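User: Could you check the structure of this?
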Amino acid sequence: MSENPFNLTGKLAVVTGARRGIGQAVAIGLAKAGADIIGVSNHMELEKSELRSKIEDMGRKFIPIQTDFSDRSSVVNLGEELSNYEIDILINNAGSIERSPALDHPLESWDRIIEINLSSQFVLTQSVAKNMAKRGQGKIIFTASLLSFQGGINVPGYTASKSAIVGLVRALSNEWSSKGIGVNAIVPGYIATDNTQALRDDPIRYQSILDRIPQGRWGKPEDLVGAAIFLSSSASDYISGVALPVDGGWLGR
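Assistant: Sure, the predicted structure tokens are below.
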């Protein structure tokens, strides 16, 4: 372990869903810790962007890639493109949510969310992990959810996909930790992002959630950065198969 085990200098990290929210905060946080960044998103700007400027102003490299995670062929192509790089860290953060009661939940919504949040995550991870296994090192981090452990309301596809992510983390850890690849998940609590806008716009739901968070506040995307750096660094070399809550104490309530 280096003198500073959280130092990511010389590492190359792929962050999916990097254009906004948690992904953007994590990409910036990893760059501050020393990593170069490949930022992936469906609508990622390929030329100038605020994210690119922030990362390059730190003296880090930034490579933008557009990928539609609802399209299997697009994700396969991403995996092939990434095979040209020596990836040290993969942050599987891309995801989506669609809300409607289970009795009326469109099957198209179910299929789309399972593809984006689960199937595409495995397709990309399998591709990237092949080179990690050859090199005998790598860190893979998924973004799970409180609904990996709870049922939620009006989000059956999202809950199913995020519950499966925790199982996938454990399965991949069982197979790959012996190959030098750490596989873990971060479990965000209620974070103020686009995905939770509908909840925050409902004053009753907003307050009922806030009242249950022991820290007394909703989280910010930046609250996830410390956990992401830790799980990406040599400080977590003996940690694998873990789902780490960053939730203001919600799951301990």
